[in-house]
UniProtKB/TrEMBL annotation:
SUPFAM superfamilies: Replisome organizer (g39p helicase loader/inhibitor protein). This is Replicative helicase inhibitor G39P N-terminal domain-containing protein. InterPro entries: G39-like_N_sf (IPR036173). It comes from the Bacteria. It comes from Halobacillus campisalis.
Length: 108
């Protein structure tokens, strides 16, 4: 999330919990970088869910929402599948025949 969105999260917490959550320079200095690592919509959703269930302010861990990390292996498999889809059927058939012949030779 952006700096402005992180500030919005903290201001919303202060508004939702008047007298229980006070923004100070020190708190802002500490929390903004942690919030910037997170996803704004997910954090706000968790904040509103927390506010509807609990009378006390959440910790950052309570409202943390990170986007899932990109799986590079999965991306590579998708790329290979796309490349394989472009190979003509005749080539695939010939490869399979050659592979089966190789397996027969090695296993004999």
């Amino acid at each position: 999330m952006t700096y402005e969105e992180a500030v919005e999260v903290l201001e919303t917490m202060e508004e939702l919990y008047p007298g229980k959550f006070k923004l100070t320079k020190r708190r802002v200095h500490f929390l903004i970088p942690r919030l910037e690592e997170m996803e704004f919509d997910g954090v706000m959703g968790k904040l509103f869910n927390h506010a509807s269930a609990y009378p006390f302010p959440p910790t950052i861990a309570d409202i943390a929402h990170h986007l899932p990390e990109q799986n590079e292996n999965l991306e590579q498999v998708k790329q290979w599948e796309e490349e394989a889809a472009k190979v003509p059927e005749e080539v695939k058939q010939r490869f399979e025949e050659m592979f089966e012949e190789l397996v027969r030779k090695v296993s004999s």
